[in-house]
C-alpha cells in the first residue's frame, strides 16, 4: 500500500522576508515544501528536505512515522529517479574536477 506521508517544511530557498498574505505554498522561490497523503504538492526538494540531518527531513519522517524499510524504499526510488534524470538530461565535469590536488599528490607519494 502507498505511504501517506504528510510533511510541511521550508527549504533553504524559503523567503522569510515575504510580506504576502498568501499561504506558504505560494512562496515565490518555491521554498515551502509540502507532501500531503504521499503526494508532492509544492516546493523544491533540496538536500535539507531529503536528509541533511534535520529531524523534519523526508527520510527522518519516514523512519519515525513508518519504518526503516519505508525510508530505505524511498532512498532506492530516489536513486533510480536521479539516475534516470542524469541519463536523460546529462551532466558534465571538467578535468579539474577529477584531478588530485597538489596536497593529495604529495601525501600519496609519501605513502608509496
UniProtKB/TrEMBL annotation:
Any one Pfam family here would be RNA_pol_Rpb1_3
| Keyword annotations from UniProtKB, A to Z | DNA-directed RNA polymerase, Metal-binding, Nucleotidyltransferase, Transcription, Transferase, Zinc
> Which GO BP terms sit in this record?
DNA-templated transcription
Q: Where is the RNA polymerase Rpb1 domain?
A: 16-98
Q: InterPro entries recorded for this chain?
A: RNA_pol_Rpb1_3 (IPR007066), RNA_pol_Rpb1_3_sf (IPR042102), Rpb1_funnel_sf (IPR038120), RPC1 (IPR015700)
**Enzyme Commission identifier(s):** 2.7.7.6
Source domain of life:
Eukaryota
What is a GO molecular function of this protein?
Answer: DNA binding
Q: What class of enzyme is it?
A: transferase
Extract the Gene3D superfamilies matched here: 1.10.132.30, RNA polymerase Rpb1, domain 3 (1.10.274.100)
Q: Name one GO cellular component term.
A: DNA-directed RNA polymerase complex
Task: Give the protein's recorded name.
Answer: DNA-directed RNA polymerase
Organism (species): Haptolina ericina
Amino acid at each position: 500500500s502507498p505511504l501517506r506521508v504528510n510533511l510541511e517544511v521550508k527549504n533553504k530557498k524559503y523567503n522569510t522576508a515575504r510580506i504576502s498574505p498568501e499561504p506558504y505554498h505560494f512562496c515565490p522561490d518555491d521554498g515551502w515544501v509540502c507532501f500531503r497523503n504521499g503526494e508532492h504538492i509544492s516546493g523544491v526538494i533540496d538536500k535539507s528536505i531529503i536528509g541533511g540531518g534535520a529531524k523534519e527531513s523526508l527520510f527522518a519522517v519516514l523512519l519515525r512515522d513508518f519504518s526503516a524499510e519505508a525510508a530505505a524504499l524511498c532512498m532506492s526510488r530516489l536513486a533510480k529517479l536521479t539516475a534516470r534524470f542524469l541519463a536523460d538530461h546529462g551532466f558534465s565535469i571538467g578535468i579539474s574536477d577529477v584531478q588530485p590536488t597538489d596536497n593529495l599528490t604529495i601525501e600519496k607519494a609519501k605513502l608509496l
